[in-house]
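[agent] plan:
  1. take the single chain provided in the ticket
  2. run structure prediction with default settings
  3. attach structure tokens to the ticket
  4. add a short note for the reviewer (M.T.)
[agent] executing step 1
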Amino acid sequence: MTSDVLLVADVGRGSLSGEAVLTAFRRGLSEHSLVVANADSWPVLNRALRRSRAVVFAGGLLFRSSTQLRRALALATSARLTGRTVCAVVAVGSGRHDRTAAVMARGLARQTDMLVVRDDASAHALMAMGMPGPIRVGADVAWTLLDSVGSAAGETRSGGVMIVEPSPPTLSDDLTDRLTAVTAVLPHDTAVVDAGIDLAGLARRLGDARLVVSREFHVTAAAAAAGVPVLTVADDSSARMLADRLDQPWVTRSAPRSELEQALQRALSVPAPARAVVQAEIAAAEEVFGLLRLVLTGGQMSADSISGLRLESAW
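[agent] step 2 finished; step 3 output follows
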């Protein structure tokens, strides 16, 4: 192993997104020894930092609260003061961030040796917090788990409409019931399936569907990799922007029944996401790991290993 890396990520909650990001990092940084901890496990983070040579922040958990940001900033500052490498491969929600959160986010960015955001929505959110550009835009690292999933695009699918429930289920949420009621009038069978925590496995399960109804970013990605049309029902700007890049319809969670019905009918009439777009997302995610490996090794990589990497800012 070339070094020990402390990976600060949203893990241990049984979520599809958290486990997908963790699995992608374990595969993408397989030559490193990873120590994984949640941003809210402060005692664990302090102990792990002492035996790690680098810190990598991953996912979107850091930007969900000022408490998480404060802890991340303290950890990053401590890491830099003790000569450790600090990297961040993050997603930033489009919600409102107060002035304190914005100051901490800028402080965290200044402590990093490498900062890459998942998409344009994340870059816009950071710029709105006063982050100076340019900001490197990559792709969600979980796309690297979908490189071997066979696409069913263009094939005749015998399945019906699959509504994918978040894992773990969201309490006090009637959206699935509303979607089931709407799809009941369609001339297709409807099934509600649990997302689980295996992203590639989910993509394979979705391969026979006529249409996938997604409630989160990674389910939309899984459906796209499987070559299946997908309707994204989400308020998250990243999920909606992904649907736009895939040329697939989306609708907000609070949409009235009539709007949901129209969106479903539209989704049933559109072709599956283009394989070229999916491959571009996978390639961009692989490049994120290429850049990360370059930074974590202090540039000690062969010419072949860095061939093709874009070393300039990309946004």
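[agent] step 4 note for reviewer: The chain has two domains: 4-145+280-306, 154-273.
[agent] ticket updated
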